[in-house]
């Protein structure tokens, strides 16, 4: 289990074109109007997945992606006529239901799927859901509480247990995933073997799905170029710099602090430099307390945001339509990721639809859609090997110049303890 | 057999008649149980449970945390300040309204506006303020362009910045709840006081204030509770830390980083219940004193 939380040692994907001290990381290589795109080396994308190691141990470099192939797409609803067999509730693979077409038939019979906490602008989830709807028109997808947190997903499962409204699947952060194993049903998708060892629980209780890298997004029309995090104490950023949430609550915000620590000489084990950095912003009067939503960003209330690359891409596209240039910046050598996880609710009211959704998410089709939203999917390596990566989607991945690291379980715990003790002291009222 | 059944019939009718009035109260008690007693019970029980449902004082111990005490202090101060300002300003406004014609356009307009604004809280209100005096708000822009003075961008996210925002719904609420009490002051009482040679000051000191005091205190308490439990407005304005107790409850409920603790949230809610309970007792005592003369 620890293996899933291992630091994902990602192969640096050789961006030789960037030789400066900082690398401008852009999340919008394909969007023509953004000036940020011009500095992008769109051919070099981060290679997610690949080698992984259990935390603290030597790297085992088991590239799970090799050998296994990833098909171009799942069969559509119309492509299948096989009847279902077996009980979806206890099925741990499509084989238990008579193959993928059996699973599709069972899911169609259920007719509905409840997904929860999937914001349409988060890693392109809106398109992911729409495409699933088109593939399987007989299945009504109910998207509940799009802005809920990971913890709220589990609370919703508990509260709605036994009803047809309970969420069928979860998309949760690592901390919540590991605390909630009792809620998950084991299931292995058909592309299971292509998922690197370090990115999945061995029985299939949870599977890493996608990650981004932490970046600083900013309105370059208003503030000019950002080339160093130290600049953000400048008076021109007065009240405009925001984290995406409260780091004692939100995973993205927590990683924003870790990111600042890494950029200021700290490490995954010692994030005090990150807290000190934000205390410095607070003292300089540049830290905003406002939640960076599309509304507050568009209105100019928030001008600089620490967030995942896939969220920055959504903002970039949205602001582009308003004639505002949103660029991203990442200090050289700082590539911080954090995988989200997919899991099936043990008490899912639509167990077959839940399993079909899982199959769909780990098909090259959905993985490409995530990629076009700026998120690095877990099957990236395997898809590269199988030739199922969509080049246009791949171009949206952020350019990075070093290996992506993420917090191990123990490191995340230590970070939480440190933040609980120090965050409100540093930036509180 | 037949002799035995005869006396039973009237007894049954009596029983139904006796149950009649009780039946009428069933919806009320059901409502109270569902929406007041049950949530309170869930909060009280949950506050003393650990993650696995066992009895524990752990959550209560968490309440001693410095950040919780800070948030409690901030919440009480913010609620008290906005309740007192709201009650005084709203009280005066309500009095002014009673001096106008009860059917006049002025009074109808103001009470209608107050009814709407008293409920104008939450994210809507927060964004209205952001659009007005936020970093790029209408007034902020105007001040910067014409006078060169810059409004502090995080003004609305500080405790003192929350005061004007909260007053936006506190004052109208006070007008609505206090207006009937001021309406109850009969002009004849004032005339009587004047006839007997009393000045305006004497009238207010001996008649006006004592009469209004109980409902004024009641309204003040309502305003306090209103601000103390207000959540959405502050939540929309402040996202990176939790300076208020209601925001801390949210934090413990939604934390996805491993710091979530629903039972600590219940302990925090219990703390809020306690604060309001203390105020109720205080209010009861004050009201008994304030209305002593009338008995």
UniProtKB/TrEMBL annotation, chain B:
Membrane topology: Multi-pass membrane protein
Residues in coiled coil: none
GO CC, alphabetical: plasma membrane
Sequence intervals crossing the membrane: 22-48, 72-97, 109-139, 159-182, 215-238, 267-286
Short name of any one Pfam family annotated for the protein: BPD_transp_1
Principal subcellular localization: membrane
Keywords: Cell membrane, Membrane, Transmembrane, Transmembrane helix, Transport
Locations listed in the record: Cell membrane
Segments forming domain ABC transmembrane type-1: 72-283
BP terms from Gene Ontology: transmembrane transport
Family statement drawn from the similarity comment of this UniProt entry: Belongs to the binding-protein-dependent transport system permease family. CysTW subfamily.
Protein name in UniProt: ABC transporter permease
